[in-house]
Design goal:
alpha+beta, 15 helices, binds ligand MV4
Length: 448
Amino acid sequence: MFRKILVANRGEIALRVICACKELGIPTVAVYSQADQNSLHVRFADEAVCIGPPPSVESYLNIPAVISAAEVTNAEAIHPGYGFLSESAYFAEVCEACGITFIGPSPEVIRMMGDKEVARKAMKDAGLPVVPGTDKIKGSFNAAARRAAEIGYPVIVKAAAGGGGKGMRIVETPEELSGAVDVAQNEALSAFGSGDVYIEKYLPFARHIEFQILADHHGNVIHLGERECSIQRRYQKLIEESPSPYVTPALRYEIGRLVVQAARTVNYASAGTMEFIFDEKGNYYFMEMNTRIQVEHPVTELVTGLDLVKEQIRIASREELGYGQNDVVFRGSAIECRINAECPDTFFPSPGKLTTFHPPQGIGVRVDTAAYNEYVVNPYYDSLIAKIICWGKNREESISRMKRALEMTVVEGVKTTIPLHQKILNDEDFRAGRIETRFLERWTRNGP
Ligand code: MV4
């Protein structure tokens, strides 16, 4: 096992990783920007190194600064959390070159999954269903237009380097295709440094359901069921749950076998997530693979009893998983609400001091947060204040627990998404499990 781990992140996920390290008996090093001097990840780590000024590019994304911090503190491994450097194949390579273990999959597989068009091909070859679509649009636009006509409109133009909904353009008619491809290419180039785009058939009705996998370096691969992530706004997830009210045990078994097979095919070793989109007929298609620990990982932890961050660390230190698919038992239902410092109507960030912060507690309630009374949500980073995660013996109980947990949460000084969560949890369609990715648009179109 590692003698020391550097946590290359901030906020609740840095604390989450520190929790796992403490339980494994591994000393930790925090890195922080000048804006995060008073942060809890700095307080709870065994050592802390300031790596730069507040802007992320100069601190949490600054590879030489992070690597130097690991070198001066003799950290053996780096956990990147989510966001920042977590899906940088280059960073994983630099770690390797410096003799530091990157806690995550290999740079090769990160790079493969980072190119959404390459990932799509690889997963198709590995036996996963994918939406009909094209290769990258290179040279002849006419060839792409012909393929789009074959696929049938509407289609969607996606940035190969995108993911998470960034750089997508829906195209309703052949006349709009050329313009949309141009715009998408330009947007992709300025946002990701690569203008590569590809086309897929657009599915207007979508449920977003993702499967969690764990794979070690000894050929053991298991899945941990799914997370339903259909409640989103502008591709930002708001609520996640496990199990999905849509997925039956038979369907879980079927897709579970497919994702395990696919992970094996690409020699995956770490925690990972395969994201699917379901249409109204129940057809499902692979969309992308996330090679990091995800924000919503706690719902899977609550229904499986596993600690995904500890598993990532154990796997990175080349330990065997030590249990198999049949040892994974799914128990009850878990739901997560992301509490952001945002206006619940406009989703504009609402940074500022939390003059009161009282997280909920009690049976079945977990709160992952780095906030405290007087904590300042600063505008440099994302506006997540806390994740409230509730477990119940079934979906009804986890939802009623979440409702009372939200009622017993006090956040003063900034606006939060709590009122929006309360509205969703009281919605008849939500309670019946009738959810899809445009669930919230109904309200914004018809007024809240
Ligand atoms: C799609 C799609 C429909 N058809 N692809 C968005 C995030 C990225 N991982 C994939 N995403 C989607 N890809 C095809 N061919 C729908 C989504 C999608 C979505 C679209 C509009 C509004 C909200 C959405 C939420 C999740 C996924």
